[in-house]
Amino acid sequence: MDSSVRSNAENSGSLPIFLFPNAIHFDHSRPRDKKMLTLYNPYDFPIVYRVLSTASRRYTVLEPSGTVYPKRVIDISIRHMAAHERSCLGVVDYFKVEIHRDGDSSINGSKVIQVRLLENLDEEREAERSSFHNVPRTRVNSQSAPETSRQRQFVPDDSISSRNFLALVFMAFAIALVLTFPTYHEPHVVESIVPSVLHPSVSQKVFFSFILGIIVAVLLMRPRLG
Could you tell me which residues belong to the region Disordered (predicted)? Predict the structure, then answer.
């Protein structure tokens, strides 16, 4: 069998396929057991599916093809017809589920599922669990331990808020300076050293005062730097 097909649980195509589980294990000690492939359709349109197998004579599939409607899920029942035969122990087969949009005959997505017959599934699972062990804690002299191995107090980076703080302070001073300028059409405006084009109107001074009040409130509520 080609190596590209042997890559189990690989999605291909332009339409992701949501199919679980990624592998199926049948139990030789329980030959009548059946397994389920669950196919989800999270899309807003129907999808058409088809189940293929590298050993179709060894399996029966209930509803090997059909349509899954939008936001629906379907369970595909699979039974191993040769699970009682010891000659099939350890043999690896593959199922391939292909999907496409309803009304479009071209394949939009597919997924390969590995299938294997085990002598005793419970014993295999127990052996798999027993093969994992706790990772031992390495004892290192605390004086020679690297700094990264010690717990450190988390200090959030305040550089961005510091820049914002300085910008707000500068803006507050600029607005306060503008508020000291003579108001437009004031009698003594001719005696001011500030060019007349920079003289704000009364409504502009009210607006700048409002903005200055907001900035001062933000600065007062900001936590102390350090």
Answer: 128-154
